[in-house]
Structure formats: C-alpha cells, structure tokens
Here is the input.
Amino acid sequence: QVQLVESGGGLVQPGGSLRLSCAASGGSFSSAPVGWFRQAPGKEREFVAALDWNGANTYYADSVKGRFTIFRDNAKDTVSLQMNSLKSEDTAVYYCAALFRWGMPLTKVSSYTVWGQGTQVTVSS
Here is the structure.
C-alpha cells in the first residue's frame, strides 16, 4: 500500500514563504488526485488545495487562493504546495492525502483514503 511522507514544514515569519512536499513510497499516487489539508489546535481538519491526477485542474480554499500553489511531478511521484505571503492564521499541521475512490469530491476530508503523518507549519514573528 502506498504511503505518503510530507516534508518542508517549519517556522517562518509573517509574509514569508515555505514549500511543502509530499512523496509516495511503497507504491505510486501518480494516477490519483492529491490534496493538502491542515489542522490547527482545537479545530477540525480543513481543505487547503487539491489537484487532479495530471495537474490539469487545481482547487483552492478561499483563504489561500492567490497565495498558495499546488503542483505535481508524476515522474518523481511528488506533490508540492508552495505557500507565499504566509499569515499567522496559516499555522497548523499540514497533511497530504491521495484519493483512490473515483468520483469523490476533491475538497472533502472524507474522500481521501491515504494520508501522510503531517508536517508542522508555524507562522510567527
């Protein structure tokens, strides 16, 4: 079964940038839509961004639109999230997930069957 591993989290000042990466091991997610979600303390996990299997279509939460960019490299079996103009409210654990149940909405947590372990992003001065 494919496993996902996130990397690239850390501490950044407001207005700064980070790039998160999600890599597959033990299998491939190159044929599956992939999404990024985040969960702040005391809050539910929420949708951030997603793209379909070839990256032709991308989707973003309103809160990150224009600041975050999701993209993939299927040759390397990776999906990345470029985060610019970061705000304190972007602080959360970020998870990538792969969707292997065809026809399910890409913006819903419940659609995804394979999740990474998460990486912490902290935006603070």
